[in-house]
Design goal:
Blueprint (H helix, E strand, L loop, with lengths): L1 H4 L6 H22 L2 H4 L7 H5 L6 E3 L3 E2 L3 E6 L5 H15 L3 E7 L4 H6 L1 H9 L3 E4 L6 H18 L4 E7 L1 H4 L2 E2 L2 E2 L6 H9 L2 E7 L11 H4 L3 E8 L4 E8 L8 E6 L2 E6 L1 H4 L3 H14 L4 E2 H10 L2 H5 L3 H13 L4 E5 L5 E5 L4 H6 L4 H9 L1
Helix pairs in contact: 5-7, 8-10, 13-16
Length: about 375
């Protein structure tokens, strides 16, 4: 009505603006009149979409999928960087068209020289770049590098880039001192869309939960919790969020903070309180055999039950379990009122000459 009757009162720009508004309203009107299938045809999956969906491609089978954002999170010193550098070595050896950019805000040149990163730089040269030399405006420069890597990936379709951020608390954009969730993974998502992969290393706070924000895990394609098991000298990877990627638990034997080889996850997946229990019992039995009551009394004396919140029934179960796994020996003795004794397996004559704890000596004197 305005265009037909009052266009002579409008400027050319106002006429264009009213015309555009008319087109917009007409489009909305047409949309309202559509049935649900037509209106949301680009939102519903078709049978062809599912049938022709590409299979998942892996950089490392069952661990790191291509074109993903993955998070490796754990306590300080748990082995996050050790594991990721080990994976870098494996990926570079398996995929000749892969280029890795490792952004690190924690290590200086001397520490890098002592790590596996230095060897990777020497062997793979331009295929493994280590960033983090500048300390001023670290987050800003890191974000610019991510942005430029997107362009690098788009301009080199024959290459597959992997960007590693160690750690996210240093590379991410900040807002009032905390990670800006509105900008979280801004360039990482663009890298993923361009065909690259991103591996984020992040830490847990003192309370044992995600530092900064839970969105770090929620926005990722998959996450691993990294745990160091000192008793078995292993680093364990516990899948936290698998999404559509069937990531698998992994365990690696380490020596001097370097991964030696992969080991069976189920065999070494022992919690801290359980591994500490095993250590205590082995140390205890190295001084001589003890019956079950004496073992429990010792655990109570050193406040193990209180510190690790473990009950006596659980302790007895572990004593029997690890005896069956040959960590130590278990013997039920009818001549001792069916008391259960534990000892380290040694020659009989050596066992008889082994020193005994004061409780055992007192009992023998009484007998």
């Amino acid at each position: 009505m305005i265009l037909e009757n009052y266009s002579h009162l409008l400027t050319k720009d106002e006429i264009v603006e009213v015309y555009e508004e008319k087109e917009k309203l007409q489009s909305q009107s047409d949309s309202y009149s559509m049935n649900i299938d037509k209106k949301y045809q680009n939102f519903f999956y078709s049978i062809e979409d599912i049938k022709n969906a590409p299979t998942i491609q892996w950089l490392i089978e069952g661990v790191i999928a291509k074109k993903t954002i993955g998070v490796f999170i754990g306590k300080s010193g748990s082995g996050k960087s050790t594991v990721v550098l080990h994976f870098c070595k494996k990926i570079l050896s398996l995929h000749s068209n892969t280029y890795i950019i490792y952004i690190d805000g924690d290590m200086d040149a001397q520490k890098i020289k002592e790590s596996e990163a230095y060897e990777l730089m020497k062997i793979y040269k331009e295929r493994f770049k280590y960033a983090g030399k500048s300390v001023n405006d670290f987050s800003k420069i890191a974000q610019e590098l991510l942005r430029d890597t997107v362009l690098e990936q788009l301009n080199n379709s024959n290459r597959s880039y992997i960007v590693i951020e160690d750690s996210l608390s240093l590379t991410a954009k900040k807002k009032r001192g905390f990670i800006d969730t509105e900008s979280l993974y801004k360039y990482e998502r663009k890298l993923r869309a361009a065909g690259s992969s991103c591996i984020i290393i992040h830490h847990m706070n003192k309370s044992g939960v995600f530092a900064d924000t839970q969105h770090i895990e929620n926005f990722a394609d998959y996450t691993y919790m990294i745990e160091r098991n000192e008793f078995n000298s292993c680093v364990l990877l516990h899948p936290q969020k698998a999404s559509r990627y069937d990531i698998q638990p992994k365990a690696f034997l380490t020596k001097d903070r370097i991964i030696c080889n992969e080991v069976n996850y189920d065999e070494v997946n022992v919690q801290e309180k359980e591994s500490e229990f095993i250590r205590i019992i082995i140390d205890l039995l190295e001084d001589g055999e003890m019956n079950q009551s004496e073992v429990l009394a010792h655990l109570n004396k050193i406040r193990y039950f209180t510190e690790f919140k473990v009950g006596q029934k659980k302790a007895i179960k572990w004593l029997q379990k690890y005896a069956e796994e040959d960590r130590w020996e278990m013997e039920k003795r009818p001549d001792m009122k069916n008391s259960i004794y534990y000892y380290i397996k040694v020659e009989k004559e050596i066992l008889e000459n082994m020193p005994k704890c004061e409780t055992t000596k007192k009992r023998e004197r009484n007998e």
